[in-house]
Write a structure and sequence with these properties.
Layout (H helix, E strand, L loop, with lengths): L2 H12 L6 H12 L5 H24 L3 H27 L2 E7 L5 E7 L11 H27 L3 H27 L13 H6 L2 H4 L3
Antiparallel strand pairs: 1-2
Helix pairs in contact: 3-4, 3-5, 4-6, 5-6
Length: about 210
C-alpha cells in the first residue's frame, strides 16, 4: 500500500471528529461564575459557624452546660446531615454513604461526579467555599480541644471531642471521594490513610 493510501485512510478516520470549542467556552464560563447555589453555599457554612459562635458565647448565653451541649450538638448534627447529603453533591459533585450488601456486610461507597456542561456541579468559587469550610472548622475545634485540655475544663472537653468527631467524619469521607476521583472505588478501599495524604498532597492542596 502506498503512503498516499495510508494518508487517505487516516483522513477518513478523522473526518467525523468534531471539536466543540463553543461547548468548552460555555463550560469555562459556567465554572468561572461566582455563585450558582447561593442558598446551598450559605447553609454549608451556617450551622458550623453558628455552632462555633455558640461555643464561644456559651458562658454569656447560659450558665447551664447541658443546654449549651444540646444546642451545639444539634447544630453540628444539622451540619453533618446537610453537608453529607446536600452541599457536597451540589457544590463539588461528591457523595459518600454506607450501605448493607446482600451478605449483611457494611459497605462504604465513595463517588466523584465528573464535571461537565450538563450537570449541576457548583463553580470554582463554590468549591473553595466547600473545602475551606470543611477543613478550617475542624481545625478551630481542634484548637478548642487543646484550650479545654490545658485549662482542665473536662466537661467542655467532652463537647469539643463530640464536635470534632462530627466535623472530621465529613472531612474524611470527602477526602476519600476526592482520592477516588472519577474512576470509582480504588482496589483497596481500606488503603486510604494519612500515608496516602503524605504521598499525594494534591488531594488537600489542590482543592484550595
Amino acid at each position: 500500500m502506498t503512503p498516499i493510501g495510508i494518508t487517505m485512510t487516516m483522513a477518513d478516520d478523522t473526518e467525523d471528529v468534531e471539536l466543540d470549542f463553543a461547548a468548552d467556552e460555555q463550560d469555562v464560563a459556567r465554572r468561572s461564575a461566582v455563585i450558582r447555589h447561593p442558598l446551598v453555599s450559605f447553609f454549608h457554612l451556617f450551622f458550623r459557624v453558628v455552632a462555633i459562635v455558640a461555643y464561644l458565647l456559651c458562658d454569656w448565653i447560659s450558665e447551664n452546660f447541658a443546654s449549651c451541649f444540646v444546642l451545639i450538638i444539634t447544630l453540628l448534627s444539622f451540619d453533618f446531615w446537610s453537608v453529607k447529603n446536600v452541599t457536597g453533591r451540589l457544590l463539588v459533585g461528591l457523595r459518600w454513604w454506607n450501605q448493607i450488601d446482600d451478605d449483611g456486610k457494611s459497605l462504604w461507597v465513595f463517588e466523584a461526579k465528573k464535571a461537565s456542561l450538563g450537570n449541576n456541579i457548583g463553580t470554582d468559587a463554590e468549591a473553595r467555599i466547600f473545602w475551606l469550610g470543611l477543613i478550617i472548622c475542624p481545625l478551630i475545634w481542634t484548637l478548642f480541644f487543646f484550650i479545654s485540655l490545658f485549662s482542665l475544663k473536662i466537661k467542655w472537653l467532652s463537647l469539643v471531642i463530640a464536635s470534632i468527631c462530627l466535623q472530621v467524619a465529613n472531612l474524611y469521607g470527602y477526602l476519600r471521594c476526592k482520592a477516588v476521583g472519577e474512576d470509582g472505588q480504588p482496589a483497596d478501599i481500606g488503603a486510604f490513610s494519612g500515608q496516602l495524604l503524605l504521598q499525594r498532597p494534591d488531594i488537600i492542596f489542590g482543592i484550595l
